Predict the 3D structure of the following.
Amino acid sequence: MADAKRKRTGAGGSDGTAWGNPHLCPTMSTNGIPEDVLKNEDLIRRLEEVAKDTALLRGVIMRTKDKPNSPEVVSYAPFTLFPSPVPRALFHQALEVQVHFNRLVDRISQNPVFLEEALASTIKVDGFTAKLFNIYRQVQQEPQTLPVVLGLNRSDYMLDQSADGQTSLKQIEINTIAASFGGLSSRTPNVHRHILKVANRLEERQQILDNNPAAGLAKGLAKAWELYGSERAVVMFLVEDVQRNIYDHRYVENELWSRDIPVVRRQFEDVCRSGSLDHDKRLFVDGQEIAIVYFRNGYMPQNYSSEKSWEARLMIERSRAVKCPDISTHLAGTKKVQQELARPGVLEHFFPDEPETVAKIRATFAGLYTLDMGEDGDRTVAMALSNPDQYVLKPQREGGGNNIYGPEICQVLEKIRNSTERTAYILMDKIQPRPCHNYLLRPDTGLRLCTCLSELGVFGAYVRKGTEMLMNECVGHLLRTKSSEHADGGVAAGVAVLDNPLLV
């Protein structure tokens, strides 16, 4: 099958995708906070302290780098001084298409033939994806009860500005495992509201949107917990050993506790040490029955520190516990699946009688190109080598800092162009986003006016039992912003900061 139309719309990134170099002009029009306000030094100095204190008061906090596992020392999570402009129509487009992406991910997860074909080349060369796929195959061979499926995902977009000045919404990726910042982004609107009130920007203050992804994500978890059908069973957050971003989790946890749903936090090593399945495949960890395993870990190779970690993942997948995500939904979020979806006719396969749904989803796709062995892959290699600054080379990895840009694309592809190693990557157009000016507040970092680029994330939650979809909602949004001088990395990587959209 031929690739999606080869256009130069660009690709840019979430916690790990390129954000293209914008064409800047000396007097940038943001349609957001006016330039004279941004350059009022006395006002900015006064607002800086107010902003940081307000973030702490409102609970926009993280643990520190020095003591990531200690609740004794916290700081504010990095954020922008002002909200950043986002075109109103494109913002609502992203929210409206989310329920369709929820359905798409769910349908992919139920289609073993598609997953086998889409990932056939990848699993031969990418060891991490291969191990995940091996678990998937093992689980597929076992008798399946009527499953409860819970999906909590986040679809990430950037706003691509074409040469004629038109701006369009382009999807960077969809995160089907450990989609973060639903908690902290529930707290940021009131921070910017207070800053704008102090700055006497009352009109902009009124435009800050309510946003509570934590409640929406918890609603999905609560529905799945109820369907599991045991009041004594708990929701287990499967977490990393370094927990700087714990408060992002805690907001979702507390939403569950407020519904009298018990929550525990465990790591892979805890499951290795004390996990077991009974004769009904109920999962027990430390003697407690687990209704839901909510993965906030397990998306990178380094999360599996030993073979026992992989055995724990297999045990979880074999169990009756609701997995968020289950292994098939995890695989549905891979970069290779994203690229396969851009091929002509593939979306129609998943939505055979819904041309409007197909059109809405496809409208968000940037150019995505295969590096499989064969003529299509050879053309992709030649295209990337001839114009590397127009593209991003993306491996099958989450977590940020993995993508390859510019001259480095040539260095990598020259080495592997004739090898199956190239199939571990996909190529994506680089987004040319619209820049704006803002201040980025980070602990122990001086304040300066930056040229910034933003990325919009939209949270989705769905619950299915058997063939019946019982919940399918868009449950909130996330705006992250960073200086245009950084190519890659997100909030957790120390590059992007939390933000709010100011609709224009």
User: Anything to note?
Assistant: The radius of gyration is 22 Å. The longest strand covers residues 449-465. The chain has 18 helices and 21 strands.
